[in-house]
What does this fold into?
Amino acid sequence: MTLADCDRVSEIRIRGWQHAYRGLVPQAYLDGLSVTADAERRRAGFAQRTGVVNLVAERDGSVLGWAAYGPYRDGDTHTGDAELYAIYVDPAHLGGGIGQALLAASLERCSAWPRMLLWVLEDNAPARRFYERAGFRPDGAEEPFEAAGVSVPEVRYVRTLAG
It folds into this structure.
């Protein structure tokens, strides 16, 4: 990903949230998401060395998907594992293998870590199936995500990478 990709990545992320989480998080929260504000935050943080790696998937010169990964965050403590922070595909291009390609690239680049973890909304059945097909399994950890004052449960998934 380059700095020039920030606007498109923010558009994919926000439209992805609005598509994937409709009915799972309050609509007022989804309606309040701003591509412009997200892009401004993304550009501001782009040059910082945070350990986050951003990948984009392109087809014919157009960015159609985005993934981000890095060290697993357990509060302020980094564990020895990798974490898939996000993966989103332009809703108009779902089902075309873009998400699978981004996940495969993330897994390959994290192969030196013992495991990869990720968080997914408990009621997001399509995402859970996607991760389970890729070898991820829930490990029993749960954590709520708060959206517009509503607690939305997330579950943690894990996949062994090294060893």
